[in-house]
Amino acid sequence: MKRIILIFLCTIGLSANAQVKTLTLKDALIYALENKADAKKAKLEIENSEYQIQEIRSRALPQITGNGNLTYNPILQTSVIDGASFGQPGTSIQATFGQKWTSGAGISLTQALFDQAVFTGLRAAKSTREFYQINSQLTEEQVIERVANNYYSVYVQRERLILLDSNYVNTSKVRDIVKGQFDNGLAKKIDLDRIVVKMSNIDTERQQIKNQITLQENALKFYMGMPIETQIILPKEEFEVVPAALTEVPNVENRTEYLLLKKQEELLVFKKKSVQAEYYPTLSLTAGYNYIGQGPEFPWFEKPSSGVYWSDYSGIGLNLKVPIFTGFGTRSRVRQADVSIRSLQEDIKDTKLSLDLDYRNAMADIDNNLVTINNQRENMHLAKEILSDTKNNYLQGLASLTDLLDAEDESLSAQNNYTRAVLNYKIAEVSLIKSKGELKTLIK
């Protein structure tokens, strides 16, 4: 009895875990942007950029430090001085300076008054934040593209399985007809065997497609950041083919990939200026206050009556550092930074050409796939008519079994070609939307 209850509870638990979720493309994309690790990490990079900016700003703020020390001198250093200073010319006097114990505490402040590197870093802070924001947007677009393509691929695999299931059912009906003819001596055993072999082949292909569907669905869920055990349903209306509207050639300078490279160029310029800042002098303000105690005894908590004396001192100053010669090290780093900028500028030019090429190729793919879809749709309808006529002719003894099997194969092939054409169109459609910089419209 306990075992039955345990099995029942486990069954309930498995049913609860096996959630079924209806996914439109928009739902899938929104889910991915909220749950996929890539999108989350991109947002964390934006958060981290704020801390990097705060780090840069800290260099322009006062730097305050506290210090303390405690020193015991077991043997004090003896110095030899001229006795003339003490009215004893011609003699040398050994004198011991210092105390056995010395302790001090203080606080110091340093404030940069002029540091070109700090000023350059502060100007670069805003660009750093914008760089990570653009990078996050690019990551989101990559997630959208990847999920959309896999979403359509899952649908196509499922359509292939539906076609095979339908083909299996139709072939089963033909098998029953042939078997009836064979039982009545109107058909040969080889004809029945051919039907059985074909059904076996169809069933094998069905199993392969089912495995491909599982793999494709798992890939989709992974790219979405969705638990693998979740069952998903894809609405059929998501795969309707609507001819894309012709538009003017988009401005590639608005594409995220281009904007990211331009922002990277801006950061490299700031990096070059930061190195050039080493040519400039630096000026800083320093201030300090200290309290020191000395005496023959452990100085803490002691008073002059114990021979321990405490006193304070402070100082305020300016530190000026003027670079004169650095062995051409700074010049070399400036030139390296300049080469990095020029190299990136070549990447920017190449990226502009690539983005323009993507748009034109996407438009060509859209046009070609529309033609292919129309052709395959007509071919599919024609193949169905041929199959229907061949089946009727076979039943009337006007067509051979080979003609019937060939007609079934051609009909299945035509339907698969049509489904594949729809997939190619949908992928081309995603590429076109991407080339126009409008992938985010898929979640609106």
From TrEMBL:
InterPro entries: OMP_efflux, TolC-like. Keywords: Cell outer membrane, Membrane, Signal, Transmembrane, Transmembrane beta strand, Transport. Its main location: membrane. It holds the Pfam family OEP. The keyword Glycoprotein does not apply. GO terms for molecular function: efflux transmembrane transporter activity; porin activity. GO terms for cellular component: cell outer membrane; efflux pump complex. It is found in: Cell outer membrane. Belongs to the outer membrane factor (OMF) (TC 1.B.17) family. This is TolC family protein. It comes from Flavobacterium pectinovorum.
